[in-house]
Structures are given as structure tokens and as C-alpha cells.
Amino acid sequence: MDRLRRSAVLAELADRLQGNGSWCGETHIQKAAFLLQEALCVPLGFRFILYRRGPFSFDLRDELTAMRADGLLRVRPREQPYGPSLDATERSRALRQRLPKTIEGVQPQVSFVGERMGVRSASELERLSTAYYVMHQDLPQADLDERVRRVTRLKPHVGAEQARAALLEVDRMKTDAERKGLRFVI
Q: DSSP E strands: which ranges in the chain?
């Protein structure tokens, strides 16, 4: 996917997250883009690593900065306890209108991620995205107990019950996505 199309998809993702109650800070976009790319197979082309608060892409961080410089996203200061939000601009809406096939091609996946991730806190997003990371990239053949142990080793501040709940939620997301006719890869 070229840069313009990727920017259009990311702007659409930001709008969908906000439309579903998300604070829509960088953490929210990072975790949602990770699931969009890795689980729902939208070819954004970012490289994610497991970092402090779960899967993170330095390339995506650079892309979000470039989108701000291009006037496609704007930073909206917010009250504490969280950082600023990233809002899609009118310029990004114009870009999306010029690329209707791109947006239509990813709309079901973007809508699914927006619905499932929009209302979650940053800590919930960290647990879910880390759970998916463990299931998909780290221990794809492991059973639930082994995955719980791995999540809690990677994230010592996440308790076993929280890890188990996140792993089970990823399984539910897969089932729900497949019911909607979406491919969800674990």
C-alpha cells in the first residue's frame, strides 16, 4: 500500500475509533493499527515490535508525525489524565474521497476494529494487543495456560486473570470477525 492510501486508511481508522468512544491518542492508533494489519490482514506495511506498552511500530509513529505535517491529522490537547488526541482533518476527508476504492476495500475491517477497540482504555488495549501478539507471533501452537504465563512474563503488571481474559477476548474477536465474513488470522 502506498503512502497516500495508507494515510487515508489511518485517518479513517482515527475517525472510526473516535466514533466509537475512543480517546484516540497515539497508543489507541498504534494498537488498533496493529490488529488491523496483523489480525485482519490490511496491508499497512508497518513493522511492529513488542515494546513497553505492547506492540509498537516506530514506522507508524513516523507516519503519524508525517500525517500531522501534511495536515491530515491534528493534535487536540485534552484534559488529564491522558495525552492529546489525534483528529482526522478536513484535508484527510478530501483525501479519502479521492480514494473511495481504497476506503471501501478496508471499510469492514476498519469498522470492526473501531467497534471493538474504540471504547477501551489504554491498559485494556495493551493487554489485548499483547495477547494477540503472543497468540499470533510468539506462541501460536500453545494452549491457553502457556499463553497466560507468557503474557504475564512479558507484562509483569498484568495479572493472570487479566491475561486470561484478554486471550479469551481475542478468541471472541476472531469468532465475531468470522461471523461478519472477515478474515482474522491467529
A: 49-51, 54-56, 73-76, 85-88
